[in-house]
Write a structure and sequence with these properties.
The structure holds 2 protein chains of 2 kinds. By secondary structure, chain A is α/β, with parallel strands linked by helices. Chain A has 26 helices and 38 strands. The chains are: A alpha/beta, B alpha/beta. The interface between A and B is large, with 99 and 106 residues.
């Protein structure tokens, strides 16, 4: 694919260049970084000195550019490299950024915008009003199509092992869309109520707000969403997809199995779950104590599966996978979890009554078959979450003392610190740094447990970090007890699946990438494959298995699902705002009893108000929350959040750089208070306030939406100012200010407008006349710089300025609104397009024209030309003229070399070559 | 002429689109009511509103309606046709409708903007205008543009830097060029200048380099001591007559570029002491600097003190415009003085220092090197007196709190601006539009700064308005680009909205021949009689001949008598309701 000319940037100079080259017959590619062509001009109110409506005179140019048969426009794209091809042309690498909207399908109907739940400042309205994360850039945009702004994956969502769009449901809760939030969770896993309670919430650890006052209670918001849904009397039934004719068996109903079953059922598979236990749910139902995860919550979640048509057979142990295939299942997923407890291997463990495994103990407790611990002393052995669950359960069963013995020092314990603390508050005594030497009966040698002998553990891990405890056998201790619960680890029970665990392996063997096992059509997932993890991790593994099984049964290559976008950098998120208002996190709702007696759920639910307030603290790190409302709303199916950047390579004959300028960041002049005082705005913001598509439909000041009566202009903000490193005059600020003065006086006839200036530089055709017109309309001009701006209690602004016209001296005056006439800065990114140092810049960072007086637009690279403000501040007509110069240079450059083959269309229509070389004038005249 | 053509409602399928113009219209015109009023008009099958009808998406919607609803007429009620006729003709074409079956009703300039105090009246007027547009469209017929081959050559009038650079640019794009210069040599003003701001380019040198390049390009034919006296012909094929050395030469060209430059303002005698020894213009001073050695000497006396008075002949009643370049030029001259003799004291008496953009650096540099700047109020210009040959300048300086200061300079430099050149003959020959300031006028100062309202004629350099060298050269190239955009295609499409004769009604009276300002009409034999015949390529569609015909035998395509009459009828009906 090739073009005669590449135009980088689609402001007025870029459009003009492309149109003229296109008219001459050259094939032109216009590359625009943003979502619309038109540059800054299309955002203006009117233009000086004609006071033409900027939209009205820009849109024809934009439309002509978009529709010109010889011009191809690519938006949302950057050039990652422009290199000379050795033949006078250029080899270009184009990076097309994802817009997350299929431009060919989008009709610009704005339904996505209305459905979007994230609001961010509207950069096309000077950040004065909000727009949605899914949005149409502005009403005259070309193309007038939606964009979904994604800065990356929000850290919370990125952290979720289950693939739940955490930011998405937070955003939906914020919008009061609880049912939608529930459905969003269910896109990943049916375990909404379960994870809302028993998840260790890596999302909250990742939450950017955590580095301010504390993270959002993301997990509890999920519980709120789930509880709200399940509490509804009348719920719309889940829609069952049509059966695709295939059947899948899932062995095991823990988080991996049910999530896999759920995902497959949603894709139209008929799924049957086989569960060996009398109840479904695996560890969720049989091992996590009810005070953390009530059985009812798990059962509600599992009911979703049944509603979707998944058959669950409990008490049904599978030990012959081949039989399942014979029974007509096209694929099998084995996700049997870790159901076998590990043993200490010390004397008395197997022989004394009263020593049990944590899994058996917890399962008994959950199934109301708990041992009688009333008044007994209990020792729990282990330092992990299961040990804590066992210890706290033992307290609830009436144990008089509960001792938790672990090898690790307290800080090293695998259990979360807060879990250990809560256990301690409930009366569990932690003995850290001890190993078990033996269990003994009471004196007299009865077959019942009487005590546990401890030995000092000196280290748990070897220097490589592997588990390898060492002991000081000399240091001993003993705990008297009537019961002991061993919670030192769990492994998979592989006995029934010898083919999947060759050599008696303690885990099922499955390919890491595809989760395929040695048996065709049999996949394995969850803790049985990975070893003990969390509910969320197992659920994520189950979802991955479902994806692979689906691809397997669809005859597709077993490739992974689209990776999420990289997580957004938290520093970038925090840097979006100058300051964040403090919003305190919710206090903990836990009330812990030192002698807990009940298995009732400990954590109180969030009220709706609490949930809304908590969700309102979200910083929208990824901008788009992935709440998927746009996907549901788009009638054209045009939204695709899985779009990713693409690179293309092209060849072009010549390059015109017209990337324009940047406005001076007004907060770099702190004495003017921009960003601190709401009623100090930039001139670009004022242009938006005056534009036909203005945000407030009149000129209002930001602090209180009052119509300002006294308005001051501070000229040369960031120009002619060595203190900000820019001695240059920005050329057009005087004129745009004079324009705004007149428009303000037209819109607000009672307003007083005062311009604090150094020199009014109305140098151009009709410009000084325009200055006189502004004076005649009543604008006051005061020569002298403004030293500083301070704010009054009522958000008025006091300017301290020099008044040269009236005898000199420093004066002060109060205004309702101050407009900073910000100047221009070079767009420094330009030089990066080329090899280091190839494109010469001037001392100020503008692209240098080596011989401006004779070869305007020519740069240091032959074949690369510059148009418009890229080489220094230019107003619109100057930019048009300069673009004309760039066009001639480009056309001359292209003519001077042999015509290149272009991939599109025919070569330009030949212009008549008049009087050829050596032809005397007399012959050429008629 | 068929008097009896009456609208035949029910046979056409017309789409009407009413624009809000983002509030420009809808703030003062009730767009919904306009739509309600016309949606049930005969032949109207689609009537919609749009925030910006010119936006890409609405354009596409209209094109889609044309295709899907089978529209055979299109009305857009929006802004002035000057802005968007081409836009919506393009939309019609994309939708498969003949572009000339489109009518634009101007309800912005003529309604919302004109009647901001009368929403009711503005709305009523808009309704009438839209109805009239529907009436015209109802009688519209498809028209096809006349396609003509263009001449791949241009004539550039003026051999200063802008004209020379334009000529080189045209030649390098493969076009033939005639470069016509009034003087004996190419070079213009710049050829007389020493080092110029802000790049330090030597003017003599620049002019020489450009001349060398011209001589190296056989595609450029240069005529010196030559002037353009006449232009005839049709779009893309003009005959330009040049008078050179007592001869008249006819040049066949496709485009004309005018680059005739400026004149330097000559102060009135006594204006700021002008006429007294030691009071010189900036142009004189620049020449002095070029010729003088170091130290600077004036009339045999060393110059130790210079006063510059800015805005002489600019920003005043007779010349209300700013000459743009003079501030920077004077500052630059003062730096040349300092470079030659750092001991010279220089005082700059100014109103606003307009050293815009990069020129600011020289202003900073001149202050660093000791130039003193004094600002005088617009209504208190400095006073220059000459007594016994010694000059005295008094000024009230605002920068020092309004102190009255007096300077005794050896030289007073009047910083004079640019004024339009006396181009009467050329202006007439090319029918060039001239602005209030006397410079040639472009078609639109913002977006079309080199084109003029005269077909095929563009302007560049300082003849359009004061410019620096770099700006003149850039605008010269811009004009070259504009010309090449027309000529490189080799063909041009001409507007088919031109007049035609109903020969059976023509009596050959010849009234129309005299009425045509473009000499497009002639009488030809038709059997025994003579009838009028119109050269479609020469006709501009002005319609001047139509009323001159006593037999109503001439019609203007797109604006036939029947169409105009039906528009008037519908306006009258509209005003009654």
């Amino acid at each position: 694919m090739g073009y005669d000319a590449l135009v980088v940037g689609s402001g007025v100079a870029g459009m003009e260049s492309a149109l003229e080259l296109g008219d001459m017959g050259y094939k032109v590619l216009v590359v625009e970084e943003g979502p619309s062509i038109g540059g800054k001009m299309i955002l203006l109110s009117k233009v000086f000195p004609t006071l033409d409506c900027a939209s009205c005179i820009s849109t024809p140019k934009m439309g002509a550019t978009a529709h010109h048969p010889n011009v191809t426009v690519v938006t949302d794209a950057q050039l990652s490299r422009v290199a000379r091809d050795g033949d006078g042309g250029f080899h270009v690498r184009l990076l097309r950024q994802p817009r997350f909207v299929d431009l060919s399908a989008c009709t610009g109907c704005r339904q996505c915008e209305q459905a979007c739940t994230v609001s961010v400042p509207d950069q096309f309205n000077g950040d004065m009003v909000a727009r949605r994360a899914a949005y149409i850039p502005f009403p005259q945009a070309v193309p007038l199509k939606a964009v979904v702004e994604r800065a990356g994956t929000s850290p919370c969502t990125y952290a979720c092992p289950a693939g739940v769009k955490a930011h998405g449901y937070v955003s939906l809760v914020r919008s009061g869309l609880y049912e939608e939030a529930f459905n969003l969770v269910l896109e990943a896993t049916p375990l909404a109520a379960t994870l809302g309670r028993a998840c260790y919430a890596p999302c909250e650890s990742a939450c950017t707000r955590g580095s301010l006052e504390g993270p959002l209670p993301i997990r509890r918001l999920k519980r709120f969403v789930a509880d709200t849904h399940y509490a509804r009397r009348q719920r719309p039934p889940l829609e069952r997809p049509a059966w695709n004719g295939k059947r899948v068996a899932v062995v095991g109903s823990g988080p991996a199995g049910v999530t896999a079953a759920w995902q497959l059922a949603k894709r139209g598979y008929q799924v049957k779950i086989f569960e060996a236990a009398p109840v479904a749910g695996g560890a969720m139902r049989l091992s996590i104590p009810s005070y953390r995860l009530p059985s009812a919550a798990v059962e509600s979640d599992l009911a979703n599966l049944v509603e979707l048509g998944v058959e669950v057979a409990t008490g049904c142990k599978v030990d012959d996978l081949a039989q399942l295939k014979r029974d007509g299942f096209d694929a099998v997923l084995v996700s049997t979890g870790t159901t076998r407890s590990m043993k200490l291997g010390v004397p008395g463990e197997d022989t004394l009554a009263g020593v049990s495994s944590a899994l058996d103990f917890l399962r008994g407790t959950k199934l109301d078959q708990s041992p009688d611990l009333h008044g007994k002393a209990v020792v729990v052995i282990g330092g992990g979450n299961v040990a804590i669950d066992a210890a706290r359960s033992a307290r609830r069963l009436g144990a008089s003392e509960v001792h938790l013995v672990c090898l690790e020092q307290r800080a090293e314990m695998p259990a979360y610190g807060w879990e250990v603390d809560e256990a301690a508050q409930e009366g569990v005594v932690v003995h850290d740094g001890w190993g078990i030497a033996s269990f003994s009966g009471p004196a007299g040698g009865a077959r019942a447990l009487g005590s546990v002998q401890l030995k000092r553990c000196t280290s748990v891990f070897d220097p490589e970090g592997r588990f390898s405890p060492s002991y000081d056998e000399e240091v001993r201790s003993e705990l008297r007890c009537e019961a002991a619960i061993v919670a030192i680890g769990m492994t998979a029970d592989t006995s029934a699946f010898a083919a999947l665990a060759p050599g008696g392996a303690r885990r099922l063997q499955a390919d890491r990438a595809t989760l395929r096992t040695a048996l065709p059509g049999v996949f394995a997932a969850g803790d049985a494959v990975t070893g003990p993890t969390t509910i969320a991790e197992a659920a994520g593994h189950g979802a991955k298995a479902a994806h692979m099984i689906d691809r397997f049964l669809s005859g597709l290559e077993l490739t992974a699902a689209v990776e999420p976008l990289p997580a957004v950098d938290k520093a970038e998120v925090l840097g979006r705002q100058r300051h964040h208002s403090r919003r305190d996190p919710l206090p903990s709702s836990l009330s812990l009893d030192s002698s807990p007696a009940s298995f009732a759920e400990l954590e109180a639910p969030l009220s709706e108000d609490e949930a809304r307030a908590a969700a309102g603290r979200c910083l929208d790190c990824g901008v788009c929350s992935e709440c998927h409302q746009c996907l549901a709303a788009c009638p054209a199916g045009a939204i695709d959040l899985d779009m990713r950047a693409k690179e293309e390579e092209l060849d072009v004959g010549a390059v015109i750089v017209s990337t324009g300028y940047k406005l001076f960041p007004a907060d770099a002049k702190p004495q003017y208070g921009y960003g601190k005082f709401p009623n100090v705005i930039t001139a670009m913001q004022m242009d938006r306030l005056l534009a036909p598509t203005r945000p407030y439909n009149t000129v209002l000041r930001p602090s209180d939406a009052k119509v300002p009566e006294r308005i001051a202009y501070v000229m040369c903000t960031g120009s002619r100012d060595q203190t900000v490193g820019n001695p240059l005059c920005s050329k057009f600020c005087c004129m745009y200010s004079l324009k705004q003065n007149q428009l303000i006086l037209g819109a607000l006839p009672l307003a007083d407008v005062t311009v604090h200036y150094i020199d009014i530089r109305a140098a151009g055709k009709g410009y000084d006349e325009f200055f006189e017109q502004a004076k005649a309309m009543g604008t006051t001009f005061l020569k002298g710089r403004v030293a500083s701006i301070t704010e009054t209690a009522g958000h008025n602004l006091v300017l301290r300025y020099e008044d040269i016209d009236n005898g000199g001296g420093v004066k002060e005056a109060e205004y309702d609104l101050v407009v900073l006439a910000v100047g221009v800065q070079p767009n420094a990114d330009v030089a990066n397009l080329f090899g280091p140092g190839e494109l010469a810049l001037d001392a100020f960072g503008y692209v240098e024209e080596l011989d401006e007086d004779k070869e305007p637009a020519a740069t240091s690279i032959p074949g690369v030309f510059v148009a418009g403000s890229t080489s220094g501040p230019r107003d619109i007509p100057e930019s048009i003229l300069h673009a004309g110069a760039a066009v001639v240079q480009t056309a001359a450059y292209l003519e001077a070399k042999p015509r290149r083959e272009v991939g599109v269309g025919a070569p330009p229509l030949g212009g008549a070559r008049a009087s050829g070389p050596g032809r005397p004038a007399s012959e050429a005249v008629a | 002429m068929s008097d009896q053509v009456t609208p035949s409602p029910g046979k056409r399928r017309i789409g009407v689109y009413v624009c809000h113009c983002g509030g420009n219209i809808s703030d003062y015109v009730d767009v919904d009511r306009v739509i309600d009023a016309v949606k049930d008009e005969a032949d109207v099958v689609v009537a919609r509103d749009a925030m910006f009808t010119c936006s890409d998406v609405t354009q596409e919607e209209i094109a889609k309606d044309i295709r899907e609803q089978g529209l055979d007429g299109l009305v857009v009620a929006s802004c002035s046709p000057k802005l968007h006729t081409t836009t919506f003709r393009g939309v019609a074409r994309r939708g498969g409708l003949n572009p000339y079956q489109y009518t634009q009703a101007n309800i912005r300039e003529q309604c919302s903007w004109a009647h901001t105090d009368d929403r009711e009246g503005a709305t009523g007027k808009a309704i009438s205008l839209v109805r009239a547009a529907v009436a015209r469209t109802r009688l519209s017929e498809p028209l096809e543009p006349l396609v003509v081959e263009t001449t791949g050559r241009a004539v550039v009038v003026g051999g200063g830097v802008a004209g020379m650079r334009a000529a080189i640019g045209l030649a390098d794009m493969g076009l033939g060029v005639f470069l016509v210069e009034r003087e004996a040599e190419l070079g213009g003003w710049v050829g007389d200048l020493p080092k110029m701001f802000p790049n330090g380019t030597d003017g003599h040198e620049l002019a020489r380099r450009l001349q060398d390049e011209i001589h190296r390009r056989p595609a450029i034919n240069v005529f010196t001591r030559a002037e353009v006296v006449e232009k005839t012909g049709t779009y893309g094929n003009y005959q330009v007559t040049v008078r050179a050395g007592g001869e008249q030469i006819r040049l066949d060209v496709g485009q004309v570029i005018v680059a005739t430059g400026f004149a330097s303002y000559e102060p009135e005698p006594g204006e700021f002491g002008y006429g007294a020894p030691g009071v010189v213009t900036l142009a004189d001073f620049t020449r002095m600097l070029d010729e003088a050695g170091s130290p600077l000497v004036y009339h045999g006396r060393p110059v130790k003190t210079i006063a510059y008075i800015y805005c002489v002949g600019s920003r005043n009643e007779t010349h209300p415009y700013c000459s743009r370049y003079c501030c920077s030029a004077a500052v630059h001259a003062s730096l040349l003085v300092t470079a030659a003799d750092p001991g010279v004291r220089q005082y700059h008496l100014y109103r606003d220092m307009r050293t815009y953009g990069r020129h600011e650096l020289e202003y900073i540099e001149s202050r660093r090197r000791g130039s003193v700047y004094m600002k005088f109020a617009d209504d208190e210009p400095p006073l220059v007196t000459s007594d016994d040959g010694s000059l005295r300048v008094t000024v009230r300086d605002l920068l020092t709190g309004g102190d009255q200061l007096a300077i005794g300079p050896d030289l007073v430099v009047l910083v004079t601006g640019m004024v339009p050149r006396d181009n009467a003959e050329l202006t007439t020959a090319l029918k060039l539009p001239v602005g209030l300031d006397g410079f040639f006028n472009e078609i639109h100062p913002k977006l079309r700064p080199v084109e003029t309202v005269v077909d095929g004629v563009s302007i560049c350099g300082a003849c359009q308005g004061p410019k620096t060298v770099a700006e003149s050269v850039a605008s010269g190239l811009a004009a070259a680009a504009q010309a090449a955009a027309v000529l490189k295609r080799g063909v041009a499409e001409l507007d088919p909205q031109v007049t035609f004769v109903h020969p059976e009604a023509c009596t050959g009276c010849g009234q129309c021949v005299g009425a045509c300002p473009y000499s497009a009409i002639s009488l030809v034999e038709r059997g025994p009689a003579k009838v009028a015949s119109i050269d479609a390529a020469a006709c501009k569609g002005c319609g001047g001949c139509v009323p001159s015909c006593p037999e109503d035998a001439i019609d203007l395509a797109g604006y036939t008598d029947a169409q105009i009459r039906s528009m008037i009828d519908s306006l009258l009906v509209g005003s009654e309701t």
